[in-house]
Amino acid sequence: MKKKPxxxxxxxxKIVPDKSVDYKEFDRQYSSNPDRxxxxxxxxxxxxxxxxxxxxxxxxxxxxxxxxxxxxxxNEAETRFEAHKIYADIQYIISGKELIGxxxxxxxxxTVPYDTEKDIYFLDSLRGEQLPARPDRYFIFFPSDAHRPxxxxxxxxxxxxxxxxxxxx
Length: 169
What we know:
This protein is mainly beta. The protein is about 15% helix and about 50% strand.
């Protein structure tokens, strides 16, 4: 049976995986390290994220950690596509809302080369879908997914977000 990303209970609310999540890739990655993924989802469901200070929180050293951030969503022209090679991102809006652009990596061109220390590179694309990110859903981005977080949805607004980094290698 294929493993699907879970529905998470958080403060009496159900948080579902966004429709963009690649279930086939999730199943493949989950089967390689189920304990790491289970810990990531437990953290997402149980941690008091509203009261965490901005910063990095180790869950399992460099294999699994979370970054809590607060910012004001930006205009599309002020954001850019990014991708990673070593980690998958679980992105969840704790409060506020934004749009996240998504496009297959194959439909992008590199604008800033890969930074091995930060596991990130930046890309450009003439395509892409913009999906709403809000506290009722989470996103998972694998190395094959270029994503453009932080875009405003309506007016620029305050956003509180956690990104859980799940090491894949």
